[in-house]
Specification:
Distance between the termini: 54 Å
Structural class: alpha/beta
Number of strands: 11
Strand content: 25-35%
Shape: globular
Radius of gyration: 19 Å
CATH class of the largest domain: Alpha Beta
CATH topology of the largest domain: Rossmann fold
Strand order of the largest sheet: 7-8-9-4-10-11
Number of helices: 9
């Protein structure tokens, strides 16, 4: 595996440099000179208020948006110059979990069929992949007897865990989780975060975790990137960012978060 340089002594899996993204009509400059490095096994938190560019960056990393300029290298490969075969491999190696656990799962299929399709899109038969499906459901703490049930029969937190199982089905090197706890209540958020922490320990999960919730990001991240109007205003280890922020915007976010010194319900 060619992972290039390292981040704090760990092999570098993803490297983003000078990334610019323009979207819409008329064209708007959404991301501006964004840089990012992710080590294998690391969890990187992307934080910022609504409109900061977090989700645009996440979707650009998985190929939904095409950058105007800059570079994205994954496992030593240039993602923006990849041929069709390499792009197909990259789509499996970098998995995206969207925010909404209600619309991200096909309501017409059972969860067994949903995971079978992820395992083998051309031969998505539950019987063919039953053992692996059961293993994945166990990994995300969903009872294997549920594989014949449809998404509507599960809670939001359970659906998000099923979405994680689907992402894990292809054994990706990196998962991009885009606000996946924002629609969940606090106790269910905690269940999903504990699951991600366990997966990091058990299978070495590498994760980019997008959220506007600083408490959630602090609880799960090794390092943090703070975005404002599409620009990186601060980055560093989670401890550095939360204990000794240097950017005024980062300090404002921390102070105004629930439990922060500047937080008020008035």
């Amino acid at each position: 595996m060619n992972t290039g340089a390292s981040v704090d002594g760990h092999p570098r899996l993803l490297e983003v440099d000078a990334l610019d993204v323009h979207l819409g009509t008329p064209r708007r400059h959404i991301l501006k000179d964004v840089g990012l490095a992710v080590a294998a096994g690391e969890t990187v938190g992307l934080v910022g208020e609504s409109g900061s560019g977090k989700s645009t960056l996440a979707k650009t990393l998985v190929g939904v948006h095409r950058p105007t300029s800059g570079s994205i290298h994954f496992d030593g490969r240039d993602c923006l110059r990849a041929g069709s075969k390499d792009r197909a491999r990259l789509r499996r190696e970098i998995q995206y979990i969207p925010q909404d656990p209600y619309s991200s799962l096909d309501p017409r299929r059972t969860i067994g069929e949903i995971i079978a399709e992820a395992l083998d899109p051309r031969r998505a038969r539950v019987s063919r992949h039953r053992q692996r499906i059961l293993e994945l459901l166990e990994l995300v703490r969903i009872d294997g007897s549920s594989l014949d049930r449809r998404p509507s029969e599960f809670s939001g937190g359970q659906r998000q865990r099923i979405a994680i199982a689907r992402a894990l089905a292809v054994e990706p090197s990196l998962i991009v989780a885009d606000e996946i706890t924002s629609a969940l209540d606090l106790s269910t958020q905690a269940e999903v975060l504990n699951l991600l922490a366990d997966l990091k320990r058990s299978i070495g999960l590498t994760l980019i975790f997008v959220s506007h919730d600083l408490a959630v990001v602090r609880s799960i991240s090794d390092s943090v990137l703070v975005l404002l109007h599409g620009e990186v205003v601060e980055s560093g280890s989670a401890r550095e960012i939360f204990d000794a922020p240097t950017a005024p915007y980062t300090r404002m976010l921390i102070d105004s978060a629930p439990g922060g010194p500047g937080f008020s319900l008035d």
